[in-house]
Design a protein that fits this description.
Number of helices: 12
Number of domains: 2
Helix content: 25-40%
CATH class of the largest domain: Alpha Beta
Strand content: 15-25%
CATH architecture of the largest domain: 3-Layer(aba) Sandwich
Length: about 300
């Protein structure tokens, strides 16, 4: 096997989680804060490494270190040169992680806090912070939209550089969605209503309904933030709180001859959501239209590819 071929084998067949567990003792998996795409390992107080890309990548949540399995070995043992790293990795080929669980603290303060309380502790979105850079660089959202999102306090800087999106009802935070390059989820204990983006105090004549907050902000960017439009997102599936909030917003459109616009994704699930949105519009006695992204994509895909704003 050539050296280059061996390097490719290491990158594909050596799991960063297995290296963490077996090379540097003490690393445990925080199951409650891990997802399939981002496994959070802890060791001691304040040491956190996130394993991503199905075990082929990692990053230090408390610093700037990141990379592939070679970088991880040298991060854990800086004294090793590249040749020594290669020899060590040969013993890890095909070894799967065992995922030892970190002990959970019972009755922790974090578990008992509501999403609204945790939202209040986070910094507002600010130009140049990690959430801003993620939304600007990775999601192509322009500064004018992020400035307005910050002014409306619709987005905040979350943990580990994530972006937090608030669902609100009568200005109170009921639920928080979380997005980052490696994580997609939400805070526990919330109740879905609607993510809202629109100038407060405006009498809207158009309600645009999306599945995800980032898609709502993407179309707001494409449409240059139409002042007649309230952009809302349901966070995917529509529970009782979401349906009630949509019904109330649709009913507010009736006296001004408004329109409910379904901007769900261009896939079968999105079309099912659109059919439900049309039923809500009919029940409220308002006009309905379907704003559909290109087939098989969502609105942020459209924006990122440069065909939007």
């Amino acid at each position: 096997m050539t050296e280059d071929a061996e390097l490719d084998v290491f990158r594909q067949a050596v799991n960063c989680g297995a290296v963490l567990e077996k090379m540097a003792g003490g690393w445990k998996l925080d199951v409650s804060e891990s997802t399939r795409r981002a496994l959070k390992y802890r060791r001691g107080a304040g040491e956190i490494i996130i394993v991503s890309h199905d075990g082929r990548g990692w990053w230090d949540a408390t610093g700037s270190a990141k990379g592939d399995v070679f970088n991880l070995v040298q991060h854990l043992e800086p004294s090793l040169n590249f040749g020594q790293v290669r020899r060590l990795l040969r013993s890890f080929v095909g070894i799967a992680p065992t995922y030892p669980e970190a002990p959970q603290k019972r009755g922790s303060a974090k578990a008992s806090r509501t999403p609204a309380e945790r939202w209040a502790e986070r910094a507002r979105l600010n130009r140049g912070d990690a959430a801003w850079l993620y939304l600007s660089n990775c999601r192509a959202l322009p500064a004018r939209v992020l400035i307005e999102a910050a002014r409306q306090d619709a987005v905040r800087l979350g943990a580990y550089g994530s972006a937090w999106f608030a669902h609100t009802s009568q200005a109170a935070v009921t639920h928080v969605e979380i997005r980052s390059p490696t994580f997609k989820g939400s805070l526990k204990g919330g109740r879905k209503t609607l993510f809202r983006f629109g100038d407060p105090g405006t009498r809207f004549t158009r309600l645009a309904v999306f599945e995800a907050p980032i898609d709502a902000l993407s179309v707001a960017a494409i449409e240059r933030m139409r002042r007649d439009t309230l952009y809302v997102a349901t966070g995917g599936g529509m529970g009782p709180g979401t349906l009630k909030a949509l019904q109330l917003e649709a009913e507010r459109l009736a006296p001004v001859a408004g329109v409910l616009v379904s901007a769900a994704d261009a896939n079968p699930a999105g079309d099912r959501f659109a059919a439900r949105h049309e039923e809500l519009a009919a029940a409220a006695g308002v006009a309905f239209s379907r704003l559909r992204p290109p087939e098989g994509s969502d609105w942020n895909d459209f924006l990122v590819k440069g065909r939007g704003a």
